[in-house]
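Re: weekly structure request thread

Next one in the queue (799 aa):
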Amino acid sequence: MKTTIAILLLFNMSLLFAQNSKLTGTIVSKNNKEKIAFATVAIFDATTKSFVKSTATDEKGYYEIQVATVAFYVQIEILGYKTVQSKTITNTKTDLNLNFELEEDALALNEVVVMQSKSLIKLSRDKMIVDIVKAGFGTGNDGLETLSKLPGVQLDKDENVVFRGSNNLQIMIDGKSSLLTGEELKQYLKTLDGANIKAVEIIANPSAKYDAAGSAGIFNIVLKKSAATGLTGNLRTSVGFAEFIKNYNGFNLYNNTEKWNLKFGLNYGYNESVNRRTIDQTVVTPDITTLLKQKNDWLPATNNYSGNFGASHQLNKNITVGASTNYSIYKSDEKTNGRTEESDDNVYKRFTILDTQDDIANTTLTGTVFYNFSSDSLDTKIDAQLNYANYQNSSDRLTSNTYFNANTNEMYRDIEAVKYQNPTNFNIISAKIDFEKKVNNTFNFETGTKLSYVNNDYTIVLQDRDAQGNYTLNTNRSNHLVYKESILSGYGITNFTKGKFDIQAGLRGEYINYNATSLTSNSTNKDNYLSLFPSFSINTNLENNQFKLSYSRRIQRPRYLYLNPYYEYIDTYNVSVGNPELTPQFTDAFELVWIKKQKTSVSFFANFSKNEMYQIIDYDKETKITTLFYDNIGKSKSIGLSFNTSYLLKKWWDLQLNTEVSYGQATSDLEGYKFNNSGISYSGALNQSFTLAKDWSAAWNSFYSKNGDYGNTSFKPSYDMSFSMRKDFFDKKLRMNLSVQNVLRKSQWIQSTQQDNVTTNWLNRWETRKITLSLTYNFGTAKKKEVKDADLNEEQNRL
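Done, posted below.
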C-alpha cells in the first residue's frame, strides 16, 4: 500500500512540469530516398547548446520524441552519413513534423560525433552496449571467450559467465533466449564465432516486460546483420593457434526487398584447446593431516556446425508476418589426463592416474512463427509469437583410475573403470503476445502474456567394471528423470512522461507448475506457486546530465538437472549429486545511474538475495571423496559502484576506461555449513583503439580483476592484455585482422574454499596467448530489416 501511494504521488508531481509537444518525422538517404533505420535523433537546448534527450529511428526510418516548450534544435547522426542539424525551433505549442535527408559520408567513421556514436561503450535507456567490433574482442574467439572480455565479466572455475560476482545471468541472442545454461550453454556459446558478434547489451536491471529469471540481469548478444538491400552477404574465415589449432568459417546471405526479407547462414568451426586444472585439498583431523594434490589436463577437440534460415513478409504498411529456424550440431572428442598424489602428515604415500575419454554430440533445433502489427501513428503495437525448441544430447564417457604406491610404483588395488552415459531430450514450446498502446503524449502502457511448456527427459546410466572386465549397471547411481513444467506469466507496464522526467512502473506475475518424476526410484517431486515481480524506474535529463533510479525483483530457478537426484562420477575423489529439495532464489535489485554528457557514467547498484543457491563442498574422511551439490544456504548481498568513461586523446587515439568496486556478503544458515563472510571485489579495464592511415587500425585491451571473499571462498586476481591490427582492402569490402590474445598468460581462475577442517584450493588456467589471422569479405551496401528469431526465454535457460 505504501509503495502504491508513493507511486501515485510521483505521478501527481509530474503534472507540475512543463507541457510537451510531439516531434515526429522520417529520415531518408538523399541519394536513393531509402529510409534509414537506427539513426540517432538528438534534441539540444538552443540557448545552452547542451544535450537534452535522444531517440532512434525505427526500421521504417520513423522517429517520435517529446519536446518541451523552449527553444531547441535537432541533430541527426548515424555512421556513414554526414551529421545534419536543424534550425532553432521556438514554437512548440503544437505537434511538429520534421523530415530529414542524410548525405553519405565515406569519412564519417573517422570523425568524432557529439553523441559518441563511435564509443566502445554506449548507454541507452536500461542497457549498456559494448561494441565488440570496435573493441576487437570477437576476432579469433568463440562466443564464450568473447563474453569473458566484457567489463566486469569473468569465467569461473567451471567456465560459467560471472558478472558482478554472480553467474545467475539470462543470456539472449538478438533479444531471444539462448536456450540453455550450465554445460549446455557453454557448448552452445562455443559454437558461435566471435567475429560474427556485433555488440553485447548488458541489462543489469530489467523491467517487468522481461522474464524474471537471472538475478544478475540479462546479456543480449547482438549478431551482425546485412547492411544492404537486394542480394548481399559476407564470407569469413580465421585460423588461430595457441597450444593447438582453431579454425572458424562462415557464410551469410541476405535478400531484402520492399516486401520480403530473407536470410540464410552456414557456419563451421574446429577447435582444439586445453584447460589445465589444479586442485589441492587439505584435510586436518586430530589424528592425521591428509593432502590431495590433483592435476588434470582437459583436452577437447570440437567440431561445430550450424545453419539458419528466416523469412518475413510485409503484408501491408501495418502488418508483418514471418518465420525462422536454426539448427546446430556440436561434436566433441574430449580426453582428460590426471594425476592425484596423496600424502599423510607430509609423507608422500600413493598416487592415482586418471584417464577419461568422453564423446559428446548434441543437436539444437529452434523455430518461430511471428506476427507484428503497428498502427500508422505507431500508437498501437501488437507482437505475437509461437516458438519451439528441441535439444538432444548424448555423452558416452569412460573413466579409469589406476592406483600406485609412491615408494614402489606398484599397484595397490585393482584398476577402477566406470562407464557414464547421459542421453537427454528436451522439448519446449511457448506462445506469447505483447500489446503496447500510447494513450497520449504523457501516458502509454504495455501488457502481455506468455504460456510455456517444458518436457525434459534425463537419463543417467552408470556402469562399473567387475573383476572379469564386464560392465554392470550401478542401480544406486543411475537414474531416469522426466521433468514436466508449465509457466503462465503476464505483465503490465505504465509509462508517464512530463517535462524532463520519465516514470515507469510495472508488475509481472509468473505461475509455475512442475512435476519431476524419477522412474528409477519411483519418486516424485512436484510443486506449484505464484511469484510477483514488481519493477520501477524514474529518469530525467537535466541539460548535460541524465539520472536514472530503477528497481526490479528477479528470480533464479534451479536448473532442471539440479532437481534430479543424479550421481555424476568425475573421478575417484570427486562426484556431483542433485538436490530435489532445492528452491528458487529471489533477488531485489536496485540501481542509480548518472550519465555526464553522453560520455561518462557512474552506477551505484545493490542486490539483496534470499534462499541463495550455493555450491557445497562436502568431504567424507572415510572414503576421501568430495561431493559437490547445490543447496539454499540463506541470504547474500552485493553493493557496488561502477565507472565508465571515454577520452579522445588524439583524433586517431580513443581510450575507454571501465572500473568497478563492490562489497559482497553471504550468510549460511544451513546446518553443518554455517558461515558469515564478506569481502571487497574490484576490477578495471583499459581499452584503446587507434585509427591509422591508409585503412589501418589497431586495438590494445587490458584488464585486472580481483574478487573479494564471498561466503567461505576467497579468490586471487586475474589480469592480462591483448592486441590486434586491422587492414581494409578494396573499398573496405575485404578486411584482414591479426590479433594476439592474453599475452601475459594470466587469464585464470584461482579460488580457495574453507569448510570446517577442509581447505580446497582450485586453479583453472585456460589455453592462452593465442594468435589469430582472419579474413572477412562483405558485398552489398545500405540497410536491411531483420527477421525475428525464436523467443523461448527463461524456461529454456535452465536446461
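The first helix runs from residue 2 to 14. Residues 1-18, 106-118, 782-787, 792-799 have pLDDT under 50 and may be disordered.
Next request, please.
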